[in-house]
Amino acid sequence: MTPQPRRRDAATPRVRRPRVRRPELQFRHSIAFVLLLVLAAWLAVVGAQAPPQRIVSLVPAATEILFAIGAGPRVVAVSSYDHEPPEVERLPRVGALLDPDLERILGLRPDLAVIYGTQHDLRQQLTRAGVPMVGYTHGGLADVTAAIRALGERTGTSSTANDVAGRIERDLAATRARVSGRQTPRVLLVFGREPGTLRNLYASGGVGFLHDMLGIAGGSNVFADQKRESVQATAEMLLASAPDVVIELHVDGSSPADLSPWQALPALPAVQKGRIVALTGTDLVTAGPRVATATERLAKAIHPGAF
Q1: Which end of the chain is more exposed for a tag (fewer CB within 10 A), N or C?
Q2: Are 195 and 159 found together in one domain?
Q3: DSSP-assigned letters across all residues of 161-172
């Protein structure tokens, strides 16, 4: 008698046998998953390091650097005090050190903001808004070339930035060599005072890029012992410093500098020798890519015979 196949009762649930994956398929799926993870991580890194395309700069020196290293076309706004290079005159203004316009900055949708290192409140606000930042701090001449290279790396223009920084270093060395071996006069480097008087006079102290420029130019800073960038000097301090040369730095050259107030201090060696000099130009007070030419201008004022 031929056995009949067993019929499953309709109420009996069907039991499915577990599928057994073939080892080679499991291996392929694992490899694919790992590759996806690696790709995602690589894309994240590339995205984080992508050169910024919309840059806002609140620091005039940094703005000049950005244009000098080839990132200028990506600058979409600058500070209220930016005037160099001429291309910045057509750009929107977003405030400055003391009055940054956060609403306008954010409205420009920047993917990089260059701000002063001391703008702590602005830094916190931009961080909350997710805007990447670079903090710029004025320092010595070495800090200028370091900032050029750092901004070059951040903006994807390292090659040009290295060229710019290298050229500055070579030009500074050439100026130093030009005045080497000459007598070093005592120099008072003034960058501010009340018009028509010597009140509220501010001069370079013993640290900062102005002090460094003066040293390379072959001058001895009369306030080298004051370890700060700016010194507010009284008449008594001026007389005690006894400068051989006084150099005034003027940003605005719209009218001739009035040097007559110095005649109120006839005991100064610089007054007696007639060595009161006025130099005009933003290059003299901007820690940016023009520092080498500004240093050469100082050297020509201190050692005209060397040129």
Answers
A1: N
A2: no
A3: HHHHHHHHHHHH
Q: How many domains does the chain have?
A: 2
- Report the distance separating Cα 300 and Cα 67, nearest Å: 27
Cα–chain-centroid distance for residue 298? 22
Domain end residue (candidates: 127, 144, 171): 171
Please name the amino acid found at residue 155.
T
The whole-angstrom separation of Cα 172 and Cα 291 is 8
CB burial class (10 A; 0-12, 13-18, 19+) of residue 151? Answer: buried
Complete edge-to-edge strand list for the sheet that includes strand 75-77: 75-77, 55-57, 112-116, 133-136
Q: Residue 256 has what pLDDT?
A: 80
- Domain range for 158: 55-171
Identify the CATH number of the domain in which residue 111 sits.
3.40.50.1980
Q: Are 155 and 110 in contact (CB under 8 A)?
A: no
Angstrom distance (rounded) from CA 2 to CA 6: 12
Q: What are phi and psi of 141, to 5 degrees?
A: -60, -35
Positions of the chain with pLDDT lower than 70, given as ranges: 1-49, 254
Q: How far is CA 283 from CA 111, 134, 188, 210, in A?
A: 28, 23, 18, 11
Secondary structure (3-state) at 76: strand
Q: Find, among 179, 137, 152, the residue nearest to 66 by Cα.
A: 152
Q: At how many degrees (to 10) do helices 60-68 and 141-155 cross?
A: 60
Dig out the tokens for 14 from the structure.
């069907």
β 201-204/186-192 pair status: antiparallel
CA–CA gap between residue 151 and residue 59 (Å, rounded): 13
Report how far residue 91's alpha carbon sits from residue 106's, in angstroms, rounded to the nearest whole number: 15
> What pLDDT does residue 88 have?
97
